Amino acid sequence: MGREEQSCNAKYSGIGGQAVMEGVMMRNKEDYAVAVRKPDGEMAVVKGVYKGIIPSEAVKNIPILRGIAGFVDSLVLGMKALNISADFFAEEEKEGKKNKKDEGSDGVKVVTDKEHESSLGIMTVIIMIISIFLALGLFMIIPYYLSLIFSKWIASPHLLALIEGVIRLVIFVIYIKCISMMEDIKRVFRYHGAEHKCINCLESGNPLTLENVREASREHRRCGTSFLLYVMVVSIIFFSLIDTPNRLMRTALRIILIPLIAGVAYEFIRLAGRSNNPVVRSLSAPGLMMQKLTTAEPDDDMIRVGIASVDAVFDWKKYLKDNFGNEL
Fold first, then answer.
1. Is the dihedral of CA 95, 96, 99, 102 positive or negative?
2. Binning pLDDT at 50, 70 and 90, where does residue 313 land?
3. Which residues contact 12 (CB under 8 A, 6 or more apart)?
4. What is the pLDDT of residues 217-230, one digit of tens each?
């Protein structure tokens, strides 16, 4: 498999994840694992179970609604994973603090989330809420009011919505470019690349080895970056349909419609991750291009962290046997 994108014969695995501070979180159904490279160079893995805000299986079969639930779940679990990774660095500053650990078969230290004693504390929840409000202001409210500058010359709400969408995209790209100048974020983007490479390696039918992952693509069609891009695209359509002269109401509707927009965008990302249809692949291309801003090539140690995270939640040998006939 080449580096440009996963193979046309890729098989959906169901695993996904995100990069965290010096590590990778992987999720397979209700199981998740956060693998982290600690300051002393040692690797640790925290395993846990997250059933979601709406654990009912029935909800997961309802289009749009499952996307809304998944969007909220990704925020909650994402913050929890970031909190877990940050804990390992805080521990270095506390002498004598030890967690009960078991040795994994590969020598990696493994603990459960209960043993790690990490949770979404009140400060973490407050930070998450503040971050959401800042994101709403930066990516939803500011683009809308900047687009009103053009209302002096443009009367069409559809064209204004398109201009607003372009402004939103420009702000997003500038934001990514700015944060990518930070050394910590550069490393997060490299772990993001490791996460994608591990998943692409498996979904292309290759055993999860350092050599195979190293050669895999760092772009993936189910990435959160692609999801955000399609949220922006879908929002253009929805916002162009808002027909009210009241600016405050139009502002409020932009916020109220976000869950619905996220649900629609999720359905496309879900389809993109499961289909090798040429049309779907073509529509996925802009998202893959955007990922070049949020992923970077990982080093071998980062790849090993990604592999450890997958190993903790996914029986990839059985997956390769069932989907590709690979006997390992």
1. positive
2. very high
3. 203, 273, 274
4. 999 999 999 999 99
Secondary structure class of 55 (helix, strand, coil):
coil
Residue with tokens 């993001």: 192
Q: Give the count of beta carbons closer than 10 Å to the beta carbon of residue 58.
A: 9
- Give the Cα separation of 244 and 84 in Å (integer): 45
Residue-averaged pLDDT of the chain: 87
- Give the pLDDT score at 119: 52
Q: 231, exposed or middle or buried, with CB in 10 Å at 0-12, 13-18, 19+?
A: buried
Q: How does pLDDT run across 252-274, given as a tens digit for each residue? A: 999 999 999 999 999 999 998 88
The region, left, alpha or beta by phi > 0 then psi within -120 to 50, assigned to residue 107 is: left
How many whole angstroms separate alpha carbon 16 and alpha carbon 30? Answer: 11
DSSP state, 14? -
Q: Are 151 and 164 in contact (CB under 8 A)?
A: no
pLDDT, tens only, 145-204: 999 999 999 988 889 999 999 999 999 999 999 999 999 999 999 999 999 999 999 999
Residue 57's identity, in one-letter code, is E
Q: Is the dihedral of CA 16, 128, 45, 43 positive or negative?
A: positive
How many other C-beta atoms can be found within 10 angstroms of the C-beta atom of residue 243? 7
Quick one: average pLDDT of 36-58? 87
Q: How far apart are CA 295 and CA 196, in angstroms?
A: 9
d(CA 79, CA 84): 9
Token match 């504390």: residue? 121
| Matching residue, tokens 């009210």 | 244
- Helix (H) / strand (E) containing 45: strand 43-49
